[in-house]
Design a protein that fits this description.
Elements: E1 3-9, H1 16-21, E2 29-35, H2 41-48, E3 54-59, H3 64-78, E4 83-86, H4 98-106, E5 112-116, H5 129-146, E6 159-162, H6 163-166, H7 180-190, E7 195-199, H8 213-238, H9 243-272, H10 278-304, H11 312-318
Parallel strand pairs: 1-2, 1-4, 2-3, 5-7
Antiparallel strand pairs: 4-6, 5-6
Helix pairs in contact: 5-8, 7-8, 9-10
């Protein structure tokens, strides 16, 4: 298979040449994307790089990591590459690990692979506590909104994807900045692509993260909620109506009936000072308890409904 590497370049002139030099001979092409870099990363690479595999691409303005990678994805599709591996240019992703990311795709076991720094406790030693907590919380939200329940570390940018799957994705609709990796998982789930995690260690230097939790948390919550609703409507109401759909509808309806009935009688008791009868309490609690059980059953169904069979072998034959 023809393998390409995509490197988003924004203020990485100190490390990017070292990253390029560490890329092994199994790679045919390296796309270095100057994402409107104020340091002129593209010109710097063209002047100092000696690797003939490197091709510098330019974005006219800064589009974020997602915009840079989409530019490389388009180039890889045009050049008939089979697999595109994304490696950051800041030296925090070891190119030596590249074969581990490519192997499941080559074997037809996965369509998309991504790094997972949570796989081993030893891998977390270099991760700051705030990032550790933030990644754990984002991982749970991503499981809900994207449906890949066995996947962790959703913000990990070390990824590989088969171009046959890329052709099925709406690349221009992907998020451009911090939410890019999560949005990628959401769109992959809508086409039922198989995602595998690849264990890797976390590597952090002394740099400060540009990701401000207080600033992006409301935005992330809103986007996760939006994608959760979209995924549910598309997979459980429009594309298919299955036992999971029934569990979720009945569970939601029963919980709503229980809460409304119980809320009305609680308000009446508070106003009149008369305690509700045991029968009234039971009639409010019973649908709520049964509804919660239905929702748990739906959650179990959703977990077991994760994609299992890779798309890329069949899509490659079509192409």
């Amino acid at each position: 298979m023809r393998i390409a590497v995509a490197i988003p370049c924004y203020k990485v002139t100190q490390h990017v040449l070292g990253v390029i030099s560490a890329i092994g001979p199994e790679v045919q092409t390296v796309y270095a994307v100057d994402d409107g870099c104020p340091e002129g990363s593209g010109r710097f690479i063209e002047e100092h790089n000696r690797d003939p595999r490197v091709r510098v691409l330019y974005n006219p303005e800064n589009r974020g990591v997602g915009g840079a990678i989409v530019t490389a994805y388009h180039a890889a599709i045009q050049d008939d590459m089979d697999i595109v591996v994304k490696i950051d240019g800041d030296g925090q992703m070891n190119p030596v690990l590249l074969p581990h990311f490519v192997r499941p795709i080559v074997r037809g076991l996965a369509d998309y692979t991504k790094g997972n720094r949570f796989y081993r406790p030893e891998s977390l030693r270099g991760m700051p506590p705030m990032r550790l907590f933030g990644n754990a919380a984002l991982s749970f939200l991503t499981k809900l909104s994207c449906g890949y329940w066995s996947s962790m570390d959703p913000t990990n940018g070390y990824t590989a994807i088969h171009t046959a799957v890329l052709r099925k994705l709406p690349l221009e609709k992907l998020e451009r900045r911090y939410f890019f990796e999560t949005d990628m998982l959401y769109h992959l789930n809508t086409i039922r692509a198989v995602v595998h995690d690849v264990p890797m260690d976390s590597v952090y230097a002394d740099e400060e993260s540009n990701l401000k939790i207080s600033k992006i948390l409301p935005e992330f919550l809103r986007k996760h909620a939006t994608r959760l609703v979209k995924r549910y409507v598309y997979l459980y109401l429009l594309r298919d109506f299955n036992i999971g759909s029934l569990y979720s509808i009945l569970g939601s309806a029963l919980c709503l009936v229980g809460m409304i009935f119980g809320g009305v009688h609680w308000a009446q008791s508070a106003i009149t000072g008369q305690p509700a009868s045991s029968g009234t309490v039971m009639f409010a609690a019973l649908p709520l308890i049964i509804g919660i059980q239905f929702l748990i059953a739906f959650l179990h169904y959703d977990v077991s409904n994760a994609p299992r069979e890779a798309l890329s072998p069949e899509l490659s034959n079509e192409h």
